[in-house]
Amino acid sequence: MNILFAASELTPYAKTGGLGDVLAALPAALRARGHSVSVALPLYRRLRESLANLRRTPLTVAVELAGRPLTARVWQGVSRDGVTVFAIERDEFFDRANLYGAADGDYFDNAARFMFYCRAVTELALTLEPRPEILHANDWQAALIPPLVRAGRLPFKTALTIHNLAYQGIFPAAEFPLTGLAGFYLKPHALEYHGRMNLLKGGILFADAVTTVSPGYAREILTEQHGCGLHGPLAARREVLTGILNGIDADRWNPATDPWLAANYDARRVSAGKRKNKAALLNELGLPPALAKQPLLGLISRLTEQKGLELVLDAAPELLKRGAGLVLLGSGDARYEEAWRDLARQHPRQVAVSIGFNEPLAHRIEAGADLFLMPSRFEPCGLNQFYSMRYGAVPVVHNVGGLGDSVANGRDGFTFSGYHTASFLAATVSALELFNNARRWKEMQTAGMTRDFSWEQRVPQYENIYQGLTK
Question: Which of 66, 351, 369, 413 would bridge 407 by S-S if both were Cys, CB 3.0 to 4.6 A apart?
């Protein structure tokens, strides 16, 4: 089949979270099975700077945006995984320091930026030879594509993947003319949402197939509690909604070959490998060598309310009193960044904090940590629990969404139910106590390290969806 993915992120060239990782891995896995696969995204400044083989093509696409005729040149390159990358050039929209906004908030013109992008992608798809059969949109930034295809009766089938329902692309109704759609589509049966415009709602209602990133999350978002206001439209499309658990790039996340580690190891050498990497990590982060004998807790996260950071901060005094060390890598809300810096200042011999994005350090934290904390308030899928198990860092997770689907309590990790500090603390203390039982701890590490989290296990489910659309 011929599939064109539309997404706003692609690791390592343009990334803020797991979306970019999925868009790097899933198209590559489909390509490895013989499909023709490409990815279209905006030509961000960082993409232009980081994808060295990206070149301008003679191809241009024209879009009239609220009566204003605009032209975009199409660039083309090849990702590190061999997938064709198309990039939509419009410097007034995309030549910026960040993808979605700055420290003071989202860019004021995100509606125009991403509606231009969606319309340019549909025009691009019409010009490609051979023409794609499937346009696979991802999250709100690409969610206008299914309504555009339906309204224009374009010769494509569409799929929409929801990576995080909390982000929906809600804008004032006054921005609706930017869509290029008839007024008929700004109605409750389409994009209208409490007097505003909701791009993700439109994608849900008009895509031929809707997927999300775990079976558990697919069930949760049909409820009022987790549906983020869209449980009604999702329930109306229940028959085309499928939850498929994400996979990981098992070659890139492999402790036996990872070039960023102090020592490589596998499940047979997990104890020695973890010991060497833990010592190197403590040295890198300026923590005392004596901490090597204590359990080290790792946390790599966007610093947002979703990620359960307040549970860790509330539980930290008790965990530190028990002798544990704590290392965090991440960035996000200023209040969380400062709270974690404060914790490190108060406990400089047990806590290390690195604010920012640092992929090599992320790999070293997975290799050096004994436990990995993911107490998310909600989690559509999550990827770090897979990385952690692969690297022998036993995860402690809130039993929601993809975390509940992927971590088996007492076998390869620890889960807790109920979003409360007490529940999180009880699960983590149980993990700390088991850490002292070397035999059982190694059994748990081995159970996680020997599981298959690769995309090869997930790709047939996407193939079934595509084949069902093209029959």
Answer: 413
Region 148-161: what's the mean pLDDT?
A: 98
| Nearest CA among 193, 43, 45, 167 for reference residue 106 | 167
- Angstrom distance (rounded) from CA 89 to CA 66: 19
Overall domain count for the chain: 2
Task: For residue 465, give the CATH number of its domain.
Answer: 3.40.50.2000
Which residue is associated with the tokens 């833990």?
278
pLDDT digits (tens, 9 = 90+) for 69-110: 999 999 999 999 999 999 999 999 999 999 999 878 899 999
Mean pLDDT, the chain, as a whole number? 96
pTM value? 0.92
Structure tokens at 92: 């007034």
Q: Are residues 292 and 432 in the same domain?
A: yes
Residue carrying the six token digits 């197939």:
209
Q: Which range marks the domain in which residue 331 is found? A: 267-453
Check if the beta carbon of residue 87 is closer than 8 Å to that of residue 47.
Answer: yes
User: pLDDT-based confidence at 357, cuts 50/70/90?
Assistant: confident
Q: Which amino acid is at 216?
A: G
Residue of 366, 1, 26 lying closest to 163 (CA atoms): 26
Determine phi and psi for 176, rounding to 5 degrees: -60, -40
> What secondary structure does DSSP assign to 306-339, as a single string?
GGTHHHHHHHHHHHHHTT-EEEEEEEE-HHHHHH
Q: Does pLDDT of 16 surpass 90? A: no
